[in-house]
Amino acid sequence: MLQGETNTIIIHLEWLDAPDPSTNYVTARDKRVEGTGTWLLNHPQFIQWKKTGHLFWLQGKAGSGKTFLCTNVITHLQNQGHQVFYYYFDTLGSGDFKVTYKGLLASLLVKMGMHNNFDQSILKTLYKGHSQGTSKVPVDVTRPFRDSSLLTLAG
């Protein structure tokens, strides 16, 4: 990608005003104790998911360790050379946007938009179709872009 193209994409991504899940990731990674949650990485279902799965969903009560477990999984996969698109639903001090479906979609569009295999024309079309970024995008409008983007990245 050329410098001018990169700047254009960054403008498009900033317009989405997406929550940044890397803040949750870094905070959890800095706080974790060595060896915490490694049981999950060795669990037969996780090992099977790594071979066949696309979506890994971890659900539990507040304070049960989901953030640390997910952070371990992300780190483990990144260390193996995988591109990981992740998101943390966060209710602590981050506003309402990190707990919404719209926040998830915006965040994933930003992550995918910076990926080399992403069709940048999809993001440009979305941007242009909303007054060159002067109006926000309703959730239902992002669905076709999200679905085609995930298929493009998976293929």
UniProtKB/TrEMBL annotation:
Domain of life: Eukaryota
Residues annotated as domain Nephrocystin 3-like N-terminal: 35-135
InterPro entries the UniProt entry points to: NPHP3-like_N (IPR056884), P-loop_NTPase (IPR027417)
A Pfam family recorded for this sequence: NPHP3_N
Keywords assigned by UniProt, alphabetized: Repeat
PANTHER family on file: AMELOGENIN, GPI INOSITOL-DEACYLASE
Record's protein name: Nephrocystin 3-like N-terminal domain-containing protein
Organism: Dendrothele bispora (strain CBS 962.96)
